[in-house]
UniProtKB/TrEMBL annotation:
It comes from Uliginosibacterium sediminicola. This is DUF1367 family protein. Pfam families: DUF1367. The lineage of its organism: Bacteria, Pseudomonadati, Pseudomonadota, Betaproteobacteria, Rhodocyclales.
Length: 160
């Protein structure tokens, strides 16, 4: 199942909200029949801004050197979805549960924008910004502060 966020266009068409949403949609062959369930977001700007922050952080993260690793016969790769989930967990937005072996596992919370008020959305964004800044952008890029990163994110969503 592919899940994307889309924006309704002037002629009734659904347009992917972010480049990631467009990429997911592009994986479907032309003429594929789909079932659509629509849930309206109260603030698509927040979603676009948060996704732009994740993208910016992941671009720098991809460029950071890591030793190639093999785990159980498979090459370990950097993943946008993994980066997004890990950053959300590090920002404190997760559920924890026990695995069968007794270890604790963390799972990123679904950031259900329609269930959040504007203050909560802002807090989620700030929490993620602080993690992306502190763990990636501060050492891996030319950004001097979280505020500067926020300005770049604002410009990025203005260009979408």
């Amino acid at each position: 199942m592919i899940e994307i966020v889309a924006i309704k266009g002037a002629r009734g068409e659904l347009i992917p909200a972010t480049p990631e949403d467009a990429e997911k949609l592009a994986t479907m062959p032309m003429g594929t029949s789909v079932k659509v369930s629509i849930t309206a977001f109260h603030n698509t700007r927040f979603h676009r801004k948060l996704m732009a922050l994740y993208r910016l952080g992941f671009e720098v993260f991809q460029e950071m050197p890591t030793e190639p690793q093999i785990h159980r016969g498979r090459e370990v790769a950097k993943s946008f979805d993994g980066f997004r989930r890990d950053t959300t967990i590090l920002a404190g937005h997760y559920n924890a549960y026990y695995r069968l072996n007794g270890e604790v596992r963390f799972e990123a919370k679904s950031l259900s924008y329609r269930r959040m008020n504007d203050q909560t959305k802002l807090q989620v964004y700030r929490d993620v910004l602080n993690q992306v800044w502190g763990r990636v952008l501060r050492q891996g890029a030319q950004y001097k502060s979280p505020e500067q990163v926020d300005e770049v994110v604002e410009r990025l969503i203005g260009m979408e």
